[in-house]
Amino acid sequence: MDKIPKIDRQREHQANERTFLAWLRTSIALISFGIAIARFALFLRQLNLAITQQEPYVNPFSNSENLGLALVISGIFTIALAAWRYNQVFWQIEQGDYRPSRLMVWIMTGVVIILGLFCIPLLLRRDKIPSHSPVQIQPQSRNLQRSIPNLNVRKVIITTLYKQIFLFFK
Questions:
Q1: How many CB atoms lie within 10 A of CB 54?
Q2: Stated pTM of the model
């Protein structure tokens, strides 16, 4: 009745599960990178706003938030595709009629190439730095006013601390 011995079928199912788990890790990585890229871009924009007191220009098409969103969507798409493929291979193993398919490999290759192409404008874009003197920032509170003169002292303390940590691990 069974075309494949029981032990071989068990090995094939385990290999199928390992493959599914590899796709699962890939999708988690894509989603994590997407969230990190989108949130870090938001942090940089808020930092720029706090320093310059001006809202920075954000390209509506090629920005880090859109790239992060695309990575999250591709991670979700990857896990859905992986679950579909796992189920398809499961039943092919059970019927003794496994046929490898390269379609999923080509789909994921295309998705990664497209996301990589979207990264190129972000890497090539250079924000123009104003040539005039930096904008004077008005402190928001008295505590901030008192802490500004001590900035150089804190910088020296932090730099010394980093040197000590570096020498400790060297």
A1: 10
A2: 0.60
